[in-house]
Specification:
This protein has nine helices and no strands. By secondary structure, it is mostly helical. Helix 1 packs across helix 2 (29-36), helix 1 crosses helix 4 (50-65) and helix 2 packs across helix 3 (40-46). The radius of gyration is 19 Å and the shape is elongated.
């Protein structure tokens, strides 16, 4: 066994491979140490608990799932940005099967807040990116949003439906795009 310290990044990469192959729910320090041919103590040096390991892996997966294609911050077509998000979610789900359903269950009850914070940080970033593309889209009706149909509620509706499409394992988001077109264009 290699008792030399490996890097945190190497351990995370190996953890991602294990999560991709076996699911995040099966991730543990002993298996990670074996996969990296290092001692369990070496893994504990970088991740003081299973919760710390799972949290780091969940954060890395969220980061990968919501990677935005080049220039997404400057996207000016809300429909196209919505499709990009759908593709990111679908690709991430293919890479990490059942991640959306398993990641919360991967934390013990006392650790769920940490997992929720990681998830919310990435979800908020994704929602903000959608909101920016909505604001920049010149084709959106200028007076469409008001007190009873707010921009924030609309972004939440679109985003929640993108996640629902993943859970349903939908092949496309075409219906959602058509609905968006009918509502705001």
């Amino acid at each position: 066994m290699n008792h030399n310290a490996t890097s945190r990044e190497e351990l995370l990469d190996a953890s991602l491979r294990l999560a991709s192959k076996e699911g995040i729910g099966t991730l543990n320090i002993r298996d990670l140490a074996g996969a990296c041919n290092v001692s369990v103590g070496c893994v504990y040096r970088y991740f003081p608990s299973k919760a710390a390991l799972v949290s780091a892996v969940v954060e890395k997966i969220w980061e990968q799932i919501f990677h935005m294609t080049e220039n997404s911050e400057s996207a000016t077509d809300f429909r196209e940005q919505t499709r990009r998000f759908f593709d990111c979610i679908r690709d991430g789900s293919a890479e990490y099967p059942a991640f959306f359903r398993q990641h919360a269950a991967s934390f013990r009850e006392s650790e769920k807040d940490e997992g929720r914070q990681v998830m919310n940080r990435y979800l908020d970033r994704a929602r903000n990116s959608l909101a920016m593309s909505l604001d920049k889209d010149p084709a959106v009706q200028a007076d469409i949003f008001g007190e009873d149909f707010t921009r924030g509620a609309f972004i939440d509706f679109v985003f929640d439906n993108l996640l629902l499409l993943e859970i349903q394992q939908a092949d496309s988001c075409d219906y959602l795009i058509r609905l968006i077109e009918k509502l705001i264009y």
